Amino acid sequence: MPAKLSVNLNAIAMLRNRRDLPWPSVTGLGQIALEAGAHGLTVHPRPDQRHIRFSDLPEIRALIDDAFPQAEFNMEGYPTEEFLQLVEAHQPEQVTLVPDDPAQATSDHGWDFRKHHDVLQSVCMRLKDGGFRISLFADGDADREALELAKDAGADRIELYTGPYGGCYDAPKHAEELLEMLGQTADIAHKLGLGVNAGHDLTVENLPPLAARIPNLAEVSIGHGLTADALIHGMAETVRRFRGACGDL
Length: 249
Description:
This protein has 249 residues and is of the alpha/beta class. The chain is built from eleven helices and eight strands.
């Protein structure tokens, strides 16, 4: 099965928020993405609402429920009480927990599963009681012990942080090394029974080798590169291009 594409709407929301105007429409572009075959929509609502606003969440939930019931809503964030209440209010199919400081510009590392095991286990128990699938953000070089702890904490999946791999767009030799590292981590996760997602700085160019090295890749969540391409190709064609890069066309 090809990796499924979830379109991260944060960059669209950040552009909208430059003005006190309703465009570009976050839900409107989300609808175009889903019509073009995206599997789902991802958001990362930060406490300062600098991109996705809390008021966007019920609109995205309603868009999926009313018009695309086969699609998934993925909410990503640091597990504060505020974030967990947003999750419980808007019922995403998947919750991706990241270790970000709320002031960070973007996610840039995975969880330290040894240090944060007990906290993650408590949060995962609460989310499991709500029936949510849980994905935990993981570094591309996470070892077996770390992934065992992620599974023990309650993860259904990990999301591999692919930022360093995406950052090697001009260094193909290093990109190959990082790709193999990501692949080895994914291999361990699969042996442990964890699903594997991936996200950060993925592009039409670097997705095919990632999908080839991790043939059981479940999902990729893509925002920045996809939004940048949409400025050139339009959202619908960009989604088709990214689906093709995943092997889904």
